[in-house]
């Protein structure tokens, strides 16, 4: 089945360009266009897409606020796409609940792959960007002790959480832990439920905030 996408951008030429890029990729259907964040909420309610490609700067309601409101909508993921590759935008988008971040001048192949990656259940944040941005975010955040919810995780779920914190995809985690990719997806789903988190990006932030991962460190090969 095709991945169903709504494109939200206040500029008509940007919406049209993104539609053309997405529809040039196999297995993607653009089912709606929204002119701002408020319109995006309505499009999601009416059309039930799998993914919203969301601009940040829009009138009436910006993309960050719309992303926050979509965070608890089952089955819908948000990829933020913007002209500005600024750390503060990335961090705010992740905190709002986005599972990916792109700049509008990304290669078209990158944009298409982003949609497929998120549809597969992966977060669209590279390991390098994950470590850089979340390291900065946590360095400026109040210190927190270990969270008691960590005790609810099985040893394997704990391992998967560590791999998520390094920005690894499900396929990469499966290879590193010698598991089937479907098994990894199951572990991710269960650990998110136990931790009360909406998506894998929030799991990464949780790992840094609770001191499970120390900024500047990487997982051993």
UniProtKB/TrEMBL annotation:
Name all Response regulatory domain ranges: 4-119
What SUPFAM superfamilies is this protein classified in? Answer: C-terminal effector domain of the bipartite response regulators, CheY-like
Q: List residues, modification 4-aspartylphosphate.
A: 55
Q: Which residues form the HTH luxR-type domain?
A: 146-211
Q: Which UniProt keywords apply?
A: DNA-binding, Phosphoprotein, Transcription, Transcription regulation
One family from Pfam that matches here is: GerE
Protein name per UniProt: Response regulator transcription factor
Question: What is the native source organism of this protein?
Answer: Conexibacter stalactiti
Q: Please spell out the taxonomic lineage of the organism that makes this protein.
A: Bacteria, Bacillati, Actinomycetota, Thermoleophilia, Solirubrobacterales
């Amino acid at each position: 089945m095709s991945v169903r996408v709504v494109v939200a951008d206040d500029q008509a030429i940007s919406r049209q360009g993104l539609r053309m890029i997405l529809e040039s990729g196999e297995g993607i259907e653009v089912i709606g266009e929204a002119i701002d964040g408020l319109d995006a909420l309505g499009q999601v309610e009416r059309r039930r897409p799998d993914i919203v490609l969301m601009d940040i700067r829009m009138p009436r309601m910006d993309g960050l606020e719309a992303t926050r409101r979509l965070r608890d909508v089952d089955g819908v993921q948000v990829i933020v796409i913007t002209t500005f590759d600024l750390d503060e935008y990335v961090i705010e988008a992740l905190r709002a609940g986005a599972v990916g971040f792109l700049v509008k001048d990304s290669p078209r192949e990158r944009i298409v792959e982003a949609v497929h990656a998120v549809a597969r259940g992966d977060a669209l944040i590279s390991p390098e960007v994950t470590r850089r941005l979340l390291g900065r975010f946590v360095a400026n955040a109040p210190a927190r002790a270990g969270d008691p919810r960590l005790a609810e995780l099985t040893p394997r779920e704990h391992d998967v959480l560590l791999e998520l914190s390094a920005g690894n995809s499900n396929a990469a985690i499966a290879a590193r832990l010698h598991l089937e990719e479907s098994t990894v997806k199951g572990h991710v789903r269960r650990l998110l439920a136990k931790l009360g988190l909406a998506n894998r990006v929030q799991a990464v932030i949780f790992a840094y905030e609770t001191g499970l991962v120390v900024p500047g460190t990487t997982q051993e090969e």
